């Protein structure tokens, strides 16, 4: 079977791998916009919503699936796809430490709550830091870039827009009047042009995120840290800081307001001067209830979609792509 996939972000790439492993021919359609949401994503594999101290829905199942998924991708590509170490929460005071310890008493949280330990960096402002067990950070750019190269070499990848989709009488799909596929998977992200055309309106509550790449003169930080923002070492002396959340003005260039918001939060971390190396933005395909969407079309039985992964695509895309394809490839 030849399966077409529109979009090669985190959702589309996961669908492509699942389809490849099932023994089918993959035809990927993706413009290669390296500033889209997936390409600027932090790649956090995090079972906890740290700001609100709650679990990601289905966290244990997502973690189990993603470990097997990425291990097989790494084996296929011959690459290491993860940064070293886990994510740590910076606890500002003894009250925060007690709250963290109390989470471990809950049966649903205890598997993910590591002990509070002294801060690993002498210049950080805080009380202690605590590991989020089971957490990790995917090297998103490497994963997407090398996956793109793999599918270009072993399958087919079209770096172009899909301008037309026609459902043929035999149930196949013709894209751009030149390519015919047996099944079609839509992994477009926001605004989901073809998904909404065939499946109707999606309950998007898309969020604009902006982040910074920074450096400073202080001693290096090796842990991925969260306090009021994430601070993520890139391994080359730079760090990703952020990102912001905004529900309006989704389009347009990066803003001075977002830059200052992140810098203001970083001033509570340490007194070291910060150098801003770059500023980026992306539009997260978030749904109103923060739950991803996937379905097969009621009439066109070999057309499906996966969307709404939000900021957790690195964690959730392996399991969600598996669930979607289970109906097509039992």
Write a concise synopsis of the structure shown:
The chain is an alpha+beta fold. It has seven helices and 21 strands. It is globular.
What would you note in describing this structure?
The chain has seven helices and 21 strands. Strand 4 and strand 5 form a beta hairpin. It has three domains: 2-55 and 139-199 and 290-326, FAD/NAD(P)-binding domain, CATH 3.50.50; 87-133, no CATH class; 207-284, D-Amino Acid Oxidase, subunit A, domain 2 (D-Amino Acid Oxidase, Chain A, domain 2), CATH 3.30.9. It is of the alpha+beta class and 330 residues long. An eight-stranded mixed β-sheet has the order 7-8-6-16-17-18-15-19. The protein has a six-stranded mixed β-sheet with strand order 10-2-1-14-21-20, covered by helices on one side. It has a three-stranded antiparallel β-sheet with strand order 11-12-13, with no helix packed on it. The mean pLDDT is 93.
Quick tags:
single chain; 330 residues; alpha+beta; FAD/NAD(P)-binding domain; 3 domains; eight-stranded mixed sheet; 27% helix
Task: Please give the structural blueprint.
Blueprint: E1 2-6, H1 10-21, E2 25-29, E3 44-45, E4 48-49, E5 54-55, H2 59-77, E6 87-91, H3 94-103, E7 113-117, E8 128-132, E9 136-137, H4 140-154, E10 156-158, E11 165-167, E12 173-175, E13 179-181, E14 183-186, H5 193-199, E15 207-216, E16 224-226, E17 230-233, E18 239-242, H6 256-266, E19 274-284, E20 293-296, E21 303-307, H7 313-326
Parallel strand pairs: 1-2, 1-14, 2-10, 6-16, 14-21
Antiparallel strand pairs: 3-9, 4-5, 6-8, 7-8, 11-12, 12-13, 15-18, 15-19, 16-17, 17-18, 20-21
